[in-house]
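Batch manifest, entry 17 of 40.
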Amino acid sequence: MKRPRAVRLRAALGMMALAAAAGALLPVPEASAAAGGATGYATQNGGTTGGAGGQTVRATTGTAIHTALCNRASSSTPITIEVQGTINHGNTKKVSGTSCDTADGVIELKKVSNVTIIGVGNGAVFDQVGIHLREAGNIIVQNVTVRNVKKSGSPTSNGGDAIGMERNVHNVWIDHTTLEASGGEAQGYDGLFDIKDNTQYVTLSYSILRNSGRGGLVGNSESDRSNGFITYHHNRYENIDSRAPLLRGGIAHMYNNHYLRLNESGINSRAGARAKVDNNYFEDSKDVLGTFYTDVAGYWQVGGNVFDNVTWSQPGSENHPAGPDPQSNTTVGIPYSYSLDTAGCVPDIVSRTAGADKGLRVSDGNCSS
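Output type: structure tokens
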């Protein structure tokens, strides 16, 4: 006999509650996509839309994220994975399937495309578990916190990178994230945001990178110049020793970022890299722009920046600071449209918009959000 609708509904809700408690993968009745749209270089090369137009599911464990990837019809079937809760080593296991290539202890976006991972509800925290992109394209990661990912000690994940991309990755938008560590290499950590081995058309926006020895790099050696077309805007780099970022080859555009307490060096353009540095606010920092730790020069175009209590070291054979009066030594053409907040309001606008769990607020280009 068919049960009354109210009984069926209570039963269905009970099953969903049990599944949620177990960290299972749950369907979401109505599809949703990452809020807003990609900006910067992620809009080029065909654009970055992530899982738009595909199924939306909810995941509360790393294993459930992997399961969502593996349950797709193919490795390119669009999907949006809404993440809630804490992802850690205890709940992030390898899942097998024809549309995925996953591993224990790391969120593995390997040989996949058309994926959005977005934090929802009370927040999504990847605790000591990094996010790794390899041979991947059209990926969005939004509104998540990734913290204390280690390359040595225990537990380890993703080579110590909070978010790392390598080997033929293209069109990635990382937005409204908080990436943080609790020290430098001596404490077991590596970079917060690393790009290498032919990774192109990437935007990092409205994010916080803090308390780390290394902010991030583009290119893992002086010969790795296959990367480029990276935009960094409306981010806050705070209490970072160096690599904010380190650029080896390629083109990068930094605008409306707040750099606070860069302890040793900041934007390190070298090995032929070209950086366009617009309307940023550098505060209480040292050697925020130049070519450092090498004699293989990089280049920059500067305009509209504020240098507030910035100190500069003396030039040397492997130390070429741009200051104390930074001047452009190249020109960089930018193919996309963008609006610049004046540098003086950048600390305020970034404090109100950058990072996870800020309601995905963005600047209107006129110092308001």
